[in-house]
Amino acid sequence: LEQKMIPVRGLRPEEITFDRVVLPCKRGIYFSAVALSVWDNIHGPKVLTLWTGKPTPAESEPEGAGVGGCPALSTETLLAVVNYSLNDEAGRIDKLDGVETKFYCLQKYDIIASAFIFSVELSRGKPDVFSFLLILPYSEVSAYLTRHRLCEVKVQEMLGEYLIAPLRSMLGKGSMKDRVMKVVPKLAKPLERFTQLMYSIRHHSLPEKINISQTFLGRDLERKADMKTFLQHAIMSHLQSSGYTVVVGEDEGSVNKMLCTLGLFLSARERKMSRLAAHTESWAYVSHVAVNLEGGAEEAEPEHWQCLNYEPELFLQGYIVGSGESHLPFSRADLWQNRLPSTVIHMEAREVRVVDPPGKVPVFIRRKEDQEALKAKKMSLPLKELTVYEAKDYSSRIVTEFLDHLRLLSPVGGAREAYIAQLLRLVKLKALALAKYVDAEPSVVVLTDSRV
């Protein structure tokens, strides 16, 4: 059914006013706009705040395009999307718990939108229903759907901490608009980080199809024989940690080459959820804590450690570090946000280490790491038997044989790519057979050796 746009106070779209906030992102915010709106029982859907990027397009983008290549969003289109997201919520009877997500594909307006609906009781009576909208051009539908789950997680965390909880604590204190306007400025910084994250993944993700000549498994497999052991450890640990790997190094080319090498063992969707390394960009923000791979911490100089933060939802991530440094450009406690173990690879030191998930790390070590992340001061190394980094200094028989057989195949013509796909099928079949065996024989304790 065709949905008509409800006018606000009888005004034309160009006469409607609301707060506009420009996010300080020079390279763009990926979204055409981000909007916060509320259902008004008298006037219907009402826009409270609209966030956009700087109006000046990048030099590489076509003239007339919006921020980051996105077309500019008109007020009429914005009001139409707000109506779509809130009109269905006006007569809702059941209680709205948490944050609910809606997705709109509006080809008529040449946009797509993710709406996050939540309610807050600001006065005694019926709760006010809000809508938080992420609006993109229609051409981004296929690229965005792959990362839609990441947006859900990030936005729900951001809204819960910086908007919903503060609003609930202000029950009965002033008018609805005054209370919302007091809380909205606190949302600017986390929203800026979120939009920068989405922009970096969109424009710096791994390609869906990786050319093996751009990896260490191409002709470099024969030329750089000294990297054989290092590659064995890296591939084995990458597979064991389910693809969650961080690669750090001084040279952007070598770091990205390792990321592409490990990306051959990921699916096309997982490659879209990975991020290449890049030198300091205008969209980067500063992480002030640098952590030594051996467990120590040092206070980093901001000009050397401007990089994107670690994101536990991403698979492969690359970071550039200073010359001669063996530090991570983020707090080691960030790695514990991942529910699975993470692999850390240092290209210059040729070290491969695995960080255990928080459930396997003693509580007092985690508390010590939290204090380290907050204070960013030097500390002594943890005891060797309690270190959270496990060095991967041995090889898997399957991976060793795989690299030996790969050398016998031609680096051109797709033979090596097909053999890599065959290895992944073999690993999946072995894992499935082990799961079926354990399911059929629950009383049997299976002891596995990671070297096999």
Chart the SSEs and their pairings:
Layout: E1 19-22, E2 33-40, E3 44-52, H1 75-86, E4 100-106, E5 111-120, E6 128-137, H2 141-146, H3 148-168, H4 176-183, H5 188-204, H6 220-223, H7 228-240, E7 245-249, H8 252-263, H9 268-272, E8 289-292, E9 297-299, E10 316-320, E11 327-328, E12 342-346, E13 351-355, H10 363-375, E14 389-391, H11 397-407, H12 415-440
Parallel strand pairs: 1-3, 7-10, 7-12
Antiparallel strand pairs: 2-3, 2-6, 4-5, 5-6, 8-9, 8-11, 12-13, 13-14
Helix pairs in contact: 3-5
Brief digest:
By secondary structure, the chain is α+β, with helices and mostly antiparallel strands. The protein has helices spanning 75-86, 141-146, 148-168, 176-183, 188-204, 220-223, 228-240, 252-263, 268-272, 363-375, 397-407, 415-440; strands at residues 19-22, 33-40, 44-52, 100-106, 111-120, 128-137, 245-249, 289-292, 297-299, 316-320, 327-328, 342-346, 351-355, 389-391.
Structure commentary:
This protein is α+β, with helices and mostly antiparallel strands. Helices cover 33% and strands 18% of the residues. The protein has a six-stranded mixed β-sheet. It has a five-stranded mixed β-sheet with strand order 10-7-12-13-14, with helices on one face. A hairpin with a 7-residue loop joins strand 5 (111-120) and strand 6. Helix 3 packs antiparallel against helix 5 (188-204). The longest helix has 26 residues, at 415-440. It is elongated, with a radius of gyration of 25 Å.
